[in-house]
Amino acid sequence: MELLFMVFYGVAVLGLLLIGVMYAILFERKVIGYMQVRIGPNRHGPWGMLQTAADVMKLLMKEDIIPSRVDRKVFIIAPVLAFAPSFMVLATIPWSENLVGANLNIGVLYFIGISSISTIGVLMGGWSSNNKYSLMGAMRGVAQMISYEIPLVLAIIGVVILAGSLNLNDIVYAQRDMGVWFIVPQILGFVIYLIAAIAELNRSPFDLPEAESELVSGYHTEYSGFRMAFFFLAEYVYAIAISALATTLFLGGWLGPILPGVVWFFLKMCIFMFIWFWLRATMPRVRVDQLMSFGWKVLIPLALLNIVITAVIKVWMG
């Protein structure tokens, strides 16, 4: 019975996730269109609501082409390896007080460990394509994702110190008991997390692994049809997962008055994602040397400073 429930839960979450990704893309295109004084999607369905569904159908119906000189086995498995971890990390997210897939005592550690696997998928996709642009995009992607994963994790440590637990539910309860969301005492950690998450997801202005003007389409240049869709799906699922984690760590999770907890959770998550869309519409792409220097010389020292300050405050408060 328990196994049946887990299967049902997994299928239900995957279905909702695919719908959520479609409308996250629509929301992004609408927001960017409004900010750039454009109409945005408006052809399919009322207010263009079915535009992303049409785009998905188009991708799925395209011919699946595998170039003759690629490393075929690695080429095929790379998109799956990039996507699967993005779905697995959602198992530990507490959407409300009673709606959580796996209430792990090491939930934060599980999220960080599983999410890092997608780096291998990016590298495999670029290397197996037998294409210099793909390989350069993959190397950029791996360097960027590893470099910015360090400040991302260090930013989370401040929250863990305050909560005294790696359990995501306990972190939400700690914010309730303290009477303040952790974004207030951890504002520096939140800013570091926000910037590092954008770079970790290869999103603008840090979308250097997919820089069209330099690398055609980066590590997935040789991919087409549903295999390319897997890479895009992984990016947006990770965006949802990282936003959900930020909501849990810094914005009080499901905590809020009157409305059900799951409603509050999704409202906070949408606000966090809106900031990403806003930055994409506003800021130009940075140079790769600027990106790497900023991560190692600015974000990591600030994240370490945040840990020291948090630890001192924690000891001083007893």
UniProtKB/TrEMBL annotation:
PROSITE patterns, per database record: COMPLEX1_ND1_2 (PS00668)
A Pfam family per the record: NADHdh
Molecular-function GO term, any one: quinone binding
Topology with respect to the bilayer: Multi-pass membrane protein
GO biological process: aerobic respiration
Domain of life where this protein originates: Bacteria
Record's GO cellular component terms: plasma membrane
Enzyme Commission (EC) number: 7.1.1.-
Keyword Transmembrane: yes
NCBIfam families linked to this entry: PRK06076.1-2
PANTHER family (alphabetical): NADH DEHYDROGENASE SUBUNIT 1, NADH-UBIQUINONE OXIDOREDUCTASE CHAIN 1
Quaternary structure and interacting proteins, as annotated: NDH-1 is composed of 14 different subunits. Subunits NuoA, H, J, K, L, M, N constitute the membrane sector of the complex.
Full protein name: NADH-quinone oxidoreductase subunit H
Organism: Anaerobacillus alkalilacustris
Taxonomic lineage of the native organism: Bacteria, Bacillati, Bacillota, Bacilli, Bacillales
